[in-house]
Amino acid sequence: LVIAGRPDAAEVGCRHVTVSLDDRLVASFVPFRGWREYRLPAAVVRSGANRVVLETALADGRPARFAVAYVGIRRP
After folding, report:
1. What's the pTM value of the predicted model, to 2 decimals?
2. Does residue 20 register a pLDDT over 90?
């Protein structure tokens, strides 16, 4: 999977993003400042609808904001 996004610059502190695909944890990462494209490890996508969930939190566990431009399938 490929995700393009950025964390909210107004929030101070280390952020953590977890990505699940169809209720399976696919990746976990700390996002960089500014807009970036994150190429995640290979994940099995099925034809039709796939449910992708992104969860973000600050180091102290409070929710954080992460703006997403797109989520797509990574081409080899």
Report:
1. 0.80
2. yes
